[in-house]
């Protein structure tokens, strides 16, 4: 009897456990991950430097830089100096018997008129260069403080060593001894050189025998015995032949 009672209770307990409700586990809703937007750096734009080309014909008033000019000397025991000062090209020669050149390297010309306005101390000469070529030579027109002018054909023999062949030299009413304050001009075209002083063309020279047909242009200053010799170029102008 006790066994039946015990089995009945056991059945009842099992039955009660089987019908007990199963607890529901509440699931936590998933949290959406917030991904911050990626910041894209703006591209860096580097501006290329603007190089202004030098016109074929131009006037250099020496108020910017000397990047288009190259300088060299012949003779002289010391090196001269060339610098921009007060909107002018200042060339200072401290050794006697020194020839100094400034050649404009931007263009070559088969026919050209080059001119310059300058002032210089007595004791030397100032001039213009045309048809310049390192291999073939150049023409050079100089006016000196003694009131004379000269035309030379120059050629390089070695680095820093040049030889000069005189083509013409003379005095003229347009030059005064002791004065080196002029505007001079030189036309180089074909086999002819035309010489100008203060806007006046005063001589024509045949240079066919030297066979120069093209080249660069430039200016020159030279010292004689008395130094220092200082040359101040206000401007240099390059134009079509005239």
Care to give the gist of this entry?
With 242 residues, this protein is mostly beta strands. The chain has one helix at residues 2-19; strands at 58-60, 69-75, 81-84, 89-93, 98-109, 111-120, 124-133, 137-144, 148-158, 161-171, 181-189, 192-197, 200-206, 215-223, 229-239.
Q: What would you say this structure looks like, in words?
A:
- By secondary structure, the protein is mainly beta.
- It has one domain: Exo-inulinase, domain 1 (Jelly Rolls), CATH 2.60.120.560.
- The chain has 1 helix and 15 strands, in the order αβββββββββββββββ.
- Strands 1, 3, 4, 6, 11, 12, 13 and 15 form an 8-stranded antiparallel β-sheet that branches. Strands 2-5-14-7-8-9-10 form a 7-stranded antiparallel β-sheet, with no helix packed on it.
- Strand 7 and strand 8 form a beta hairpin.
- The longest helix is centred in the first third of the chain and has 18 residues.
- The radius of gyration is 44 Å and the shape is globular.
- The N and C termini lie far apart (149 Å).
How is the secondary structure organized here?
Layout: H1 2-19, E1 58-60, E2 69-75, E3 81-84, E4 89-93, E5 98-109, E6 111-120, E7 124-133, E8 137-144, E9 148-158, E10 161-171, E11 181-189, E12 192-197, E13 200-206, E14 215-223, E15 229-239
Antiparallel strand pairs: 1-15, 2-5, 3-4, 4-15, 5-14, 6-11, 6-15, 7-8, 7-14, 8-9, 9-10, 11-12, 12-13
């Amino acid at each position: 009897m006790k066994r039946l009672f015990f089995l009945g209770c056991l059945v009842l307990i099992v039955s009660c456990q089987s019908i007990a409700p199963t607890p529901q586990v509440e699931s936590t809703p998933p949290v959406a991950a917030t991904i911050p937007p990626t910041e894209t750096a703006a591209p860096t734009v580097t501006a290329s430097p603007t190089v202004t080309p030098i016109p074929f014909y131009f006037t250099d008033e020496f108020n910017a830089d000397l990047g288009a000019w190259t300088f060299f000397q012949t003779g002289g025991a010391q090196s001269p100096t060339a610098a921009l000062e007060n909107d002018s090209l200042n060339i200072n020669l401290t050794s006697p018997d020194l020839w100094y050149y400034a050649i404009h390297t931007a263009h070559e010309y088969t026919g050209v008129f080059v001119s310059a306005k300058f002032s210089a101390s007595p004791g030397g000469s100032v001039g213009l260069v045309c048809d310049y070529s390192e291999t073939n030579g150049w023409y050079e027109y100089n006016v000196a403080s003694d009131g004379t002018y000269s035309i030379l054909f120059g050629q390089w023999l070695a680095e820093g060593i040049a030889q000069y062949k005189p083509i013409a030299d003379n005095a003229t009413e347009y030059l005064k001894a002791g004065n080196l304050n002029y505007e001079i001009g030189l036309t180089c075209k074909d086999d002819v050189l035309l010489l100008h002083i203060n806007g006046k063309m005063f001589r024509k020279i045949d240079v066919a025998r030297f066979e120069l047909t093209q080249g660069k242009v430039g200016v020159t200053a030279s010292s004689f015995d008395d130094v220092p010799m200082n040359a101040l170029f206000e401007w240099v102008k390059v134009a079509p032949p005239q």
